[in-house]
Amino acid sequence: MKFVGVTACIAGLAHTPMAAKALENAGVKLGHSVKMEQQGAMGLINEVTEADVREADAVIIAADKAIEGEERFKGKPVVRVKLGQAVSNGEAVIEKIVQALEKRKQS
Q: What pLDDT score does 107 carry?
C-alpha cells in the first residue's frame, strides 16, 4: 500500500523528523510506501504533492497540533495518531492502518 502524511509537533524540532523517519522506516520494513511531510521549525520538508495524494491509499497525520494544508487530503481516508505513537511504534501504526483499510475493502 501507499501512504502519505504529515508529522508536526509544537516545537517542530526533534519529534517531527523522528516521527517521519519512524513511519517511513516502518513502511519499508513492512513492504509499504510511506512519504511523510515534516512541518516544523525548519519549514516544510519532503512536501507531499498533489500526485502523491492522488496515488495514496490513505493519509497519516501524526501531529500534536493543527497542520497546514489539510484540505488537500479531502476524499482520502485520514488516520490521526499522536506524534509519540509514531515515534515509539511506527510499525504498529502502519499495521493498524493496513488492517483497517483491508477490512474496509471487504465491506
A: 77
Instruction: State the burial class of residue 22 (Cβ atoms within 10 Å of its Cβ: 0-12, 13-18, 19+).
Output: buried
Is position 9 annotated as part of the catalytic site? yes
Share of the chain above pLDDT 90, in %: 87
Task: Check the CA dihedral 75-79-80-84 and report its sign.
Answer: negative
Which among 52, 67, 61 has a CA at the least distance from the CA of 2?
A: 52
Q: Catalytic one among 6, 9, 60, 61?
A: 9
Helices 90-106 & 15-30, crossing angle to 10 degrees?
60
Taking the whole predicted model, whether its pTM rises above 0.90 is answered as: yes
